[in-house]
Amino acid sequence: MSLADRDKVAGLELARELTRLGFRLAATVGTAGFLRSHEVKVDTLVGKVGLGDLGVDAVKMISSGEVQLVVNTPSGSSARSDGAEIRTACVGHGVACVTTLSAGFAAAKGIADTRVQGWRVRSLQELHS
C-alpha cells in the first residue's frame, strides 16, 4: 500500500478490511507510519523504487511473487514515476493494481464475496432477463 496523504484517513478502513481478509500488509514508510499509529499491523516497509535504504523495493516484491494486490494512490511527480514502474511490474507479473480507494474497496468486497459464494460466471443477458 502506498497512499497519498489525502487518502490516508479513508485508506485506514481499507487496510483494516484487507487484514480481515487475511492479507499481510506491505506499505511505504509514510503509509506504514499512519497505519501503525492507528493499530493496523504492517509487516513490511517498502522504500522508494530503486532505493533499498528505507525498505524493500516494491517492484522487486511484485516480481518475486510476494504481492497479490497493490493499492497505490499516487500524488506528486516522484510518486507518479514510482507508480508507473509499480503498475508496469503489476501488468508484467499478473498482479492486480488499483489506483483509487473506491477501486480498493470494490476489490476487497469482491474478494470477500467470492470467498463466501465462489465464482459465478453469468452472461449479461442472464443478469438482465
Structure description:
With 129 residues, this protein is of the alpha/beta class. The protein has a single domain, classed as Rossmann fold (3-Layer(aba) Sandwich). 51% of the residues lie in helices and 15% in strands. The protein has 6 helices and 6 strands. It has helices at 8-20, 29-37, 58-63, 77-93, 101-117, 124-127, and strands at 2-3, 26-28, 44-47, 56-57, 69-73, 96-98. A 3-stranded parallel sheet has the order 1-5-6, with helices on both faces. It has a 3-stranded parallel sheet with strand order 2-3-4. Strand 2 (26-28), helix 2 and strand 3 form a beta-alpha-beta unit. The protein is globular. The protein starts with a strand and ends with a helix. The model has no long low-confidence stretch (mean pLDDT 90).
Q: Which terms would index this structure?
A:
6 strands; Rossmann fold; three-stranded parallel beta sheet; 51% helix; 129 residues; globular; alpha/beta
Fold-level CATH name: Rossmann fold
**What is the C-alpha radius of gyration, as a whole number of Å?**
16 Å
User: Structural class of the helices, strands and pairings?
Assistant: alpha/beta
Beta-strand content: 5-15%
CATH evolutionary superfamily: Methylglyoxal synthase-like domain
Q: What would the principal axes of the Cα set say about the shape?
A: globular
Average pLDDT works out at 90
Q: What would CATH call the class?
A: Alpha Beta
What is the N-to-C succession of helices and strands? EHEHEEHEHEHH
Total number of strands = 6
Helix content: 40-55%
Main pleated-sheet profile? 3 strands, parallel
